[in-house]
């Protein structure tokens, strides 16, 4: 069943065999169809620091960045309104792309250097209105992370626990299509 295959699996397959991207992408997008959209405006802050180029575990060739891109691809399809920004030493807005083009835009958005999550959250809080702020990260930060201006989630795509003292953030360890279900349930948006 294609609906059970998560975007990061397609990303890993495309990394292994780039020539198959044109066949994999329609399947990846189809796997995201038919689900209820997460209402409101979502801002995603996606970590592209150097540590995100590390494997998710010692036995995996999947990088933390691949997992984060998979969640971003999923959220692009399943959020009513979404804006994606990357952070490292800078904060960069990612063009409104889908599928593998979104992955490429994220990966190539800026050099993969430091992890200034605190600065990124401050910039988003000052410059953007949102219903929820979702941070996709391996939970490392070179600066203090302030509270979010609205509802905020930190999704840890690393297999180890790092934690940087997030205060009032909703913390999620792990990633899957269930992240969207969790957000809908936590915000009282589920159809059930």
Q: Mind explaining what this structure looks like?
A:
With 192 residues, this protein is of the alpha/beta class. It has six helices and six strands, in the order H-H-E-H-E-E-H-H-E-E-E-H. A six-stranded mixed sheet has the order 3-2-1-4-5-6. Helix 1 runs antiparallel to helix 2. The mean pLDDT is 85.
List keywords for this structure.
192 residues, alpha/beta, six-stranded mixed sheet, 20% strand
Strand-helix topology:
Blueprint: H1 7-16, H2 21-31, E1 38-47, H3 64-78, E2 79-87, E3 91-93, H4 99-107, H5 117-127, E4 132-137, E5 151-156, E6 170-173, H6 178-186
Parallel strand pairs: 1-2, 1-4, 4-5, 5-6
Antiparallel strand pairs: 2-3
Helix pairs in contact: 1-2, 1-3, 3-4
Brief sketch in words of this structure:
The chain contains six helices and six strands; from the N terminus they run ααβαββααβββα. The chain is of the alpha/beta class.
Order of helices and strands: HHEHEEHHEEEH
Question: SS-based structural class?
Answer: alpha/beta
Task: Give the DSSP E fraction (strand runs of 2 or more residues).
Answer: 15-25%
Q: N-to-C terminal Cα separation, in Å?
A: 23 Å
The poorly predicted ranges are none
Helical proportion, percent range: 25-40%
According to DSSP, the number of beta strands is 6
User: The biggest beta sheet, please?
Assistant: 6 strands, mixed
Number of helices: 6
